[in-house]
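Run log, item B.
One chain of 152 residues. Sequence copied directly from the ordering sheet:
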Amino acid sequence: MTPVARLHRDPIDPTSLVRAVSGASHGAVLLFLGVVREMNDGREVSGIEYSAYEPMAARELSDIAQAAEARFTSSTVAIEHRLGALALEEVSVGIAVAHPHRAVAYDASRWIIEELKRRVPIWKREQYVDGHREWVDPTGRGTSTVEPEVLT
């Protein structure tokens, strides 16, 4: 079975992710959803905009999904990442992993999100309640060195 790995601008449907990985041989189906939160580094967030170098990002997502299935034998994987403007509480990334055993499903899910953050060229620009917006380092190592913008 070919793993699911997609970028798109439509809302992520958690049920379809679970359906994509479910099967009679799997005793564990794990779903991870990354959502837009209202605070980051002590600043109130009003939304996030995701952009990507899409051909490379799609290829990397696919490579990560295939590597996860090979690395965590007997796993089935589905990964989706949103692009465009997202409001608070919207799902930005969804990862579903199914495996005969829960420990492996958890390990695979953690590995996938860390690889995605490290390798996939997706950038996020946070929009703050105070009207500023700023590109944020997707690896979690801080904000970018680009000057913040003020929304007009």
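Observations after the first pass:
- The two ends are 48 Å apart (CA to CA).
- The chain has three helices and ten strands.
Flagged for discussion on Thursday.
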